[in-house]
Amino acid sequence: MLFRSAEVVSVLMLVVALIIAKHLPIAAGLPLSQITGIVCFMFAIYLSLRIYNAELKKIRAEE
Fold it and tell me: Transmembrane ranges (predicted)?
């Protein structure tokens, strides 16, 4: 499998927590929207590198 479900669940929980915290008055001064975007972008990079690595292994195994 290209990714583990625990990895996806943990990132989704973090994103949901950041979105919920964004609406709390205590965290009003924090840039939580930008942090959420960075987390999502970094996870997308992580997943794309995992897919690239898996495809690279397949290509090298065929040679």
Answer: 31-49
Confirm if 62 and 14 have CB atoms less than 8 A apart: no
Domain ranges of the chain: 5-62
Q: In angstroms, rounded to a whole number, what is the distance separating the alpha carbons of residues 49 and 32?
A: 26
- Look up residue 18 and give its two tokens: 């950041």
Rounded to an integer, what distance in angstroms lies between the CA atom of residue 20 and that of residue 13? 10
